[in-house]
């Protein structure tokens, strides 16, 4: 006899014996005790007994197998494989051209298991993701990628903690947070990431990149520097690695609490980077806002940028500019 069956029998005996206790239990207590015993017995039968009608109901149903979908121009449509991922995840693990055919939302409590994961998760090189005008709304990350030659373009990300996070092998951009110490001997691979024609709306951090030779251009970024941010580090764009080009982006910074600093662009180990034709606007107050912060970076060229921040540039002791106009 199984443990589940013995448990049900015992509870059934308790339920049957309850009327005999009517002389010693108040009527309300008797009803509550009987209801509880019956409820537990039924629950165990449904969950544990073989052959019961509800047995296995707690197991996630198997979804139909995922069938690849392609557009007429050969783009593979990203889909959520519900048999593989219990939470929304558009997973890419091979090179190719991908696109969205709908909007996606992923909001959850930070205390919930598996939250917040990225909506689009890239674990491959030579990947092109075309949003095709669609929106990803998320409380966690919009896009997370690891590889080389990843391009993200033509869409919108709303409300994310991090909009797009793309990482060089062995060098996460998170290692370049302004509050963390500088690693002076970093060697970066040629990642060639491209982020262009994207709109970021009310994100806490829009773009975080590491690697050599990345390109960020023609994006519109609205960043909220929320004082509740647990990192207490505020930036809209972080570029970690040399020879990047950051061009023709429009930033709007808002929500910075008094006593904090917030960067539109923060560059570390970014020798030879070109920052040109970007516009940075601030909210009600520009106090504490910085256009470009440089850390362990030399030879950066600033060209035709327009900043309404309190400070245009901040350089640490290991940084220098190649020129500006």
TrEMBL record:
Keyword Signal recorded: yes
The entry's keywords: Signal
UniProt source species: Duganella phyllosphaerae
Protein name: Right handed beta helix domain-containing protein
Signal sequence bounds: 1-22
Domain of life: Bacteria
């Amino acid at each position: 006899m199984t443990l589940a069956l013995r448990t049900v029998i015992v509870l059934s005996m308790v339920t049957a014996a309850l009327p005999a206790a009517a002389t010693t239990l108040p009527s309300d207590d008797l009803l509550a005790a009987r209801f509880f015993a019956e409820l537990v017995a039924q629950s165990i039968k449904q969950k544990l007994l073989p052959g019961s009608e509800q047995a296995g109901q707690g197991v996630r149903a198997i979804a139909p197998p995922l069938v690849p979908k392609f557009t007429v121009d050969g783009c593979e449509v990203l889909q959520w494989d519900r048999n593989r991922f219990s939470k929304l995840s558009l997973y890419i693990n091979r090179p190719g051209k991908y696109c969205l055919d709908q909007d996606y939302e992923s909001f959850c409590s930070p205390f919930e298991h598996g939250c917040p994961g990225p909506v689009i998760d890239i674990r491959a090189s030579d990947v092109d993701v075309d949003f095709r005008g669609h929106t990803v709304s998320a409380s966690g990350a919009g896009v997370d990628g690891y590889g080389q030659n990843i391009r993200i373009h033509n869409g919108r990300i709303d409300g994310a903690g991090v909009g797009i996070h793309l990482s060089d092998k062995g060098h996460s951009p998170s290692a370049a947070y302004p509050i963390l110490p500088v690693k002076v001997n970093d060697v970066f691979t040629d990642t060639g990431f491209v982020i262009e024609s994207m709109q970021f709306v009310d994100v806490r951090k829009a773009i975080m990149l590491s690697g050599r030779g990345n390109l960020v251009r023609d994006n519109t970024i609205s960043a909220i520097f929320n004082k509740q941010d647990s990192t207490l580090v505020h930036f809209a764009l972080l570029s970690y690695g040399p020879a990047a080009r950051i061009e023709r982006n429009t930033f709007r910074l808002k929500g910075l609490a008094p006593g904090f600093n917030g960067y539109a662009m923060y560059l570390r180990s970014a020798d030879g980077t070109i920052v040109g034709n970007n516009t940075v606007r601030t909210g009600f107050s520009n106090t504490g806002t910085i256009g470009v912060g440089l850390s362990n970076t030399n030879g950066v060229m600033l060209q035709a940028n327009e900043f309404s921040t309190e400070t245009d540039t901040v350089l640490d002791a290991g940084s220098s500019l190649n020129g500006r106009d």
